[in-house]
Structure formats: structure tokens, C-alpha cells
Design goal:
- It is a single chain.
- It is built from one helix and 24 strands.
- With 288 residues, it is mainly β.
- The strands form six sheets. It has a four-stranded antiparallel beta sheet, with no helix packed on it. A four-stranded antiparallel beta sheet has the order 5-6-7-8, with no helix packed on it. Strands 9-10-11-12 form a four-stranded antiparallel beta sheet, with no helix packed on it.
- It starts with a helix and ends with a strand.
């Protein structure tokens, strides 16, 4: 009889702890945003939630890691990378759920980067033609599958096409998956602009060897991650393509920002395991 209150109290504490854990969930990664929703990876699966926040729904449950979900321009489909058969390939899934359609089939790793602005093809990074495992090239492939086409770049890791599809802002080298802090050296990541018609390239100016990564286009600006501030912390910056002016947009001090992605009117990113949304064009930052 004296043990009953103990078990009752333990049950109440367990429920309380469980509820607290659910509210304070972290480690949400690789987010993207559409006009109405946010997609992200959590516990190796893909989840979606209203972009204002709320109860997230899991879209995928297969064994294997799923990462880099990216909404189609119309917000009706999600492309992503998944390791279902021993290596990463690119898949497409209706945003409401269903059976994923496999798009790439190379035995090497294929990492999704983004959709093309017209929503017909997918941009992905792969080492299938690199000859080395240490760097990738960028490829385009129809969203329904087919033979990939390599972009005319010797190596590239992430990139973003201009709205007309003629200019690619891309990174030849990426340190986004590394744990380096305040690095200044030959492996520092840079952003370049490559004109796919004129075959000309121009580098985004760096600041004392800063690491610049994850380019995104919105209007007349390029948004990107950079550690060019005084404490060398990764934050969002913008570059005005007309005036050539740089401006710091976010000011995280305790944690770096990671893997931002852009939608029709927002940028979403992760910092300290939490998701944040930057409203455009006001550049107001809100936690999701």
C-alpha cells in the first residue's frame, strides 16, 4: 500500500518529462520552406510543419537516412536525398505523402542541392565523374528520372540558379559538414558566379579569407552564410547585386547558423538545433 503513491508519482513525472522533451525537441536539420510549409530532417526522417509552427507530421518512415528535403517551386512535391540501398540517391515524393520515386541510380553518393526555377529538373552534387572521392560536380536531371547532365564546372558542391536559369552562384569547395571553427586557409569556401551562356566566372569578394557558403537568390540580392563578422560566427549575410554592398542579416552569438534554404518569401535555417524563419523582404527573424 505504501508503494502505490510512489508509482503514481513516478508516472506523473515520466509524463511531465516526456511532454517537456517533445516541446523542447532539437536536432532538426536541413530545413526548406515553401509558401505555406517547412520541411526538415529529424531522426533520419522527413517531417513537414506549417511555416508558422505547430504539430509536425512525418512523411517518411523507411530505414535509412533522408536529408536535404527541397520543395518544388509550386510547393506540391519534395525532392530529397536518401540512403535506402547502401548509398545516397535522389528521390521525389508528393508533399502529402506517398511512395518516393527514385531519380538517380549511380552507385556513388548523389546529394540533392535544389530544383531548377521551372520545376522540371533537379540540381544535385555527385562524384560520379570526379575521379576522386574528395570533391563533387553539379548535375541536372529531369525530376522524373533520366540521364544526368554535368554542368561545365570542374568541381562544385552547392549552388543556386538565377530565376532565368542563366547564372549559377556556386561553391567549388564546401566546409559545411566539417567542425572547423574560425578557419582561414586554402580550404576556405568561396562563392562564384558562373554565366552558363557566356562561360564566364566571377568570385564573390571575401573578407580576409572568410568562409562564404550556401548561396540563395532573392530579388536583386544574394543571401549566403558567412563567418566574416568580428567573432567569425556563421550568420546570414546579403550581397546587393547592383550596389555590391554587403550587409549582415542575422546575429547569432552562441551558435552558428547552418544550411539555410529559401522559399518564395522566406529563408529558413537551423541554429542550436532550432529552426528559424527570416521573412522577406523585411528580414525579420522569428523562431519556428
Amino acid at each position: 500500500m505504501r508503494l502505490l503513491p510512489f508509482f503514481t508519482t513516478a508516472a506523473i513525472v515520466a509524463v511531465s518529462v516526456s511532454a517537456t522533451a517533445q516541446v523542447d525537441a532539437r536536432l532538426m536539420r536541413y530545413p526548406d520552406v515553401s509558401a505555406t510549409q517547412i520541411a526538415f530532417s529529424y531522426a533520419n526522417d522527413i517531417w513537414v510543419v506549417a511555416k508558422t509552427g505547430g504539430l509536425a507530421q512525418r512523411l517518411s518512415t523507411p530505414k535509412g537516412e533522408e536529408s536535404f528535403p527541397r520543395f518544388s517551386p509550386d510547393g506540391k512535391e519534395l525532392a530529397f536525398s536518401a540512403n535506402y540501398d547502401g548509398n545516397q540517391d535522389v528521390y521525389v515524393l508528393p508533399v502529402g505523402g506517398g511512395i518516393p520515386t527514385r531519380v538517380t541510380h549511380h552507385p556513388g553518393n548523389d546529394r540533392l542541392v535544389d530544383w531548377t526555377p521551372d520545376g522540371k529538373s533537379l540540381l544535385f552534387a555527385s562524384g560520379m565523374e570526379s575521379g576522386k572521392d574528395r570533391f563533387s560536380k553539379l548535375f541536372l536531371v529531369p525530376k522524373g528520372g533520366g540521364l544526368p547532365t554535368a554542368l561545365p564546372l570542374p568541381y562544385a558542391e552547392f549552388g543556386a540558379l538565377s530565376p532565368d536559369g542563366k547564372v549559377l552562384a556556386y561553391m567549388p569547395i564546401s566546409t559545411d559538414f566539417r567542425t572547423w571553427k574560425r578557419y582561414r586557409g586554402g580550404m576556405a569556401s568561396e562563392i562564384w558566379f558562373y554565366d552558363l551562356e557566356k562561360k564566364t566566372a566571377l568570385r564573390l569578394p571575401s573578407s580576409e579569407g572568410s568562409n562564404d557558403s550556401q548561396p540563395m537568390r532573392y530579388g536583386g540580392k544574394l543571401y549566403f552564410l558567412s563567418d566574416r563578422d568580428g567573432v567569425k560566427r556563421n550568420n546570414l549575410w546579403s550581397y546587393d547585386l547592383a550596389t555590391k554592398a554587403f550587409q549582415q542579416v542575422t546575429f547569432f552569438k552562441e551558435y552558428d547558423a547552418h544550411f539555410p534554404a529559401i522559399g518564395p518569401s522566406d529563408i529558413v535555417l537551423e541554429a542550436g538545433g532550432r529552426l528559424y524563419r527570416l521573412e522577406l523582404p523585411t528580414e525579420k527573424l522569428v523562431e519556428v
